[in-house]
Structures are given as structure tokens and as C-alpha cells.
Amino acid sequence: MTKKIVIGGGIILVLVVLGVILATSQSLQPTGEVSSIQPPQNEAVVSTSSASSAAPAASYTLADVARHATQFDCWMAIEGKVYDVTSYVGKHPGGKAILRGCGKDATVLFNTRPDGPGTPHPPEARQILQQFYVGNLKS
Length: 139
What we know:
This protein is globular. Strands 1, 2, 3, 4, 5 and 6 form a six-stranded mixed β-sheet that branches. The relative contact order is 0.15. The protein has a domain at 59-137: Cytochrome b5-like heme/steroid binding domain (Flavocytochrome B2, Chain A, domain 1, Roll). It is of the alpha/beta class. The chain contains four helices and six strands, in the order αβαββββααβ. The longest helix has 27 residues, at 2-28.
């Protein structure tokens, strides 16, 4: 009887040690997950890392843009181009004024800033905007 207990206990100990080793090694491996909001699967994502990219720009309708109308998922169209400005919402110098453009054609808002000085955004703002470009607005 003692041999059965020792063998059974030994097997349990080995299984526990293997379980701890596996759990530890899995928790140390990078998952590759990125914490960001992804567009619906029927929408293409365009990389803006290279200006000489051979792939044509994605095109979106206003209905596509309208599906991104919150502070946590904010797309807007400006002068025929579509921008995902979600990551910029909290950094916008005009505060929450940027939220008025989420999910719509924000060309007039961008060019007139009705909640601010009533003038177009400066060239620096247009430069910042380019990094959020995701495609063109379908007419």
C-alpha cells in the first residue's frame, strides 16, 4: 500500500510541477495583441507608413464613417479624405470640440472651428491630421 501512495504522490507532484512550468512559460510569452479598436471586417485598413505604397487607398462612404461616431471610435471625413482620430481625441487642443466631427463629414467644422476662434485650423493641424489618414471618401 505504501508503494502505491508513493508512486501516486510522485505522479501528482510531477504533474503539478509540469503545470507550473507550462503556466509560467505561457504567461511570459508575448501575445502579440494590440489594444486598439479595429474597424469592422468589411472595411479595409490602409497603412500610411510609406508614401510610395503601390496599394490604392481604401474608400469609405459616409455611412462607413458614421459607424465610428464616439469618443472611443472617432472617424471623420475632411475634404474628401477619411481619418481615424480616435487616438487623438484626448490630445486635441480644443478639448471635446473634436467630438462634434466624429462619424460625419467634418470639413466645415475643421475649416471654421465654430466652437473656437472661427478660423480654419493652422497648417500644423493639417500636418498632424495626415498621420490619421485611413482612406478616401466615396462620393
